[in-house]
Amino acid sequence: MTWFLFASDPALAVGDSAPDFSLRDENGELHSLRDYRGSRLVLYFFPKAETPG
To answer: Which of 32, 35, 48, 49 is the most exposed place for a label (fewest CB within 10 A)?
Structure first.
């Protein structure tokens, strides 16, 4: 399964809220950005094994 995230709005400015989005983790569990609102969160996107990037 491949996920693509496209920004349809102009770039965010410092202090703007991030738009909500949802992605599945490696176990198939769905996570939405809104579930973590008010918490500190680090998002780390990495390439799939054996792919360039």
So the answer is: 49
